[in-house]
Design goal:
Blueprint: E1 2-8, E2 11-18, E3 21-24, H1 25-33, H2 42-47, H3 50-54, H4 56-65, E4 69-71, E5 76-78, E6 87-91, H5 95-100, E7 110-114, E8 119-120, E9 136-137, E10 140-146, E11 162-169, E12 172-173, H6 174-180, H7 184-187, E13 193-200, E14 211-216, E15 219-225, H8 233-241, E16 251-253, E17 275-280, E18 284-289
Length: 291
């Protein structure tokens, strides 16, 4: 199944996407429980245990009937999670990305955070923070969306805590990242967390073998596969949750493959007027202009 957040005029809500229709999950909730429900985004639906409350059988029935469906071409898909509780990112997690930097693969995941209030959705603009940095880079990444909360989750149980997968473009101001000697500011400029376009459930994608690529103005810059990940999703969930609890709606961005602009000769930074398209097979394409 595919889930997301839609906008239709002034109406915004969480949705289940089936074929050419967006099914309003707030209306699905109302039909099940006969009381009003409005979810501003998929994150609110997850936080309130929406899947469990509505029930998989009811969701299956709605996809067949489409009685509360909106034609997909009439809506705008927004970031599926407007403001995740946490965005936990993993650095240097593709073997080829380590190689392009002439580095050995790290012995343990390199974790950092992005601010949760900088998320943007499909077709929203990545803004260059003029006066602060112009060395803006892209990073296409498979992102894990947590559905079931947990603390100290063993890797053998990790998949039970995954609601689904989406795409994150881990946009980065490289000069801030290098100059600060830590990564939070350079990774957390406003609009530096494009997310979407949808969240697909685990039955629709193999996170250990998914083709990944990114284009800038139609030119392929990154081309890889998640089978090059150093630390896979179950390992990351175990490693991260050993330190702090994971909540419904948390996002784990698993790292980027080789081909980032910083390591080209000369470096190739994003500039105004560019268009970035991050694609993961099984999820779709997350496209954003740069301004």
């Amino acid at each position: 199944m595919k889930y997301g957040t839609f906008q239709l005029g002034n109406r915004v809500g969480a949705c289940l996407i089936h074929g050419k229709f967006a099914i309003d999950l707030g209306q699905a909730f109302f039909r099940q429980f006969k009381r009003p429900a409005k979810f501003q985004d998929l994150g609110e639906f997850l936080e309130q245990g929406g899947v469990e409350k509505v029930g998989q059988l009811e969701l299956d029935r709605l996809t067949r009937e489409r009685t509360v469906g909106i034609p997909l071409h009439e809506v705008k898909l927004k970031a599926p999670l407007r403001r995740p509780p946490k965005i936990v990112c993993v650095g240097l997690n593709y073997r080829a990305h380590a190689t392009e930097q002439k580095l050995e693969p790290p012995p343990a995941p390199m974790l950092f955070a992005k601010a949760p209030n900088i998320v943007i959705g499909p077709e929203d603009a990545i803004e260059i923070p003029l006066g602060l940095s112009e060395q803006i880079d892209y990073e296409c990444e498979l992102a894990v969306v947590i559905g079931t909360p947990g603390f100290r989750i063993p890797r053998t149980e990790a998949k039970k805590h995954v609601f689904g997968y989406t795409i994150m473009n881990d946009v980065t101001a490289r000069d801030l990242q290098r100059g600060d000697k830590q990564w939070f500011r350079g990774k957390s400029c406003n609009t530096f967390a494009p997310l979407g376009p949808v969240v697909v459930t685990p039955d629709e994608i193999d996170p250990a073998n998914a083709p990944v690529h990114l284009k800038v103005n139609g030119e392929v810059r990154q081309k890889s596969n998640t089978n090059d990940l150093i630390f896979d999703v179950p390992f990351l969930i175990e490693y991260i949750s050993a330190a702090f609890p994971l909540e419904a709606g948390d996002v784990i961005s698993t790292g980027t493959p080789s081909g980032v602009g910083m390591f080209m000769t000369p470096p190739r930074w994003l500039k105004k007027g560019d268009r970035v398209e991050a694609t993961i097979e099984g999820i779709g394409t997350l496209a954003n202009p740069v301004r």
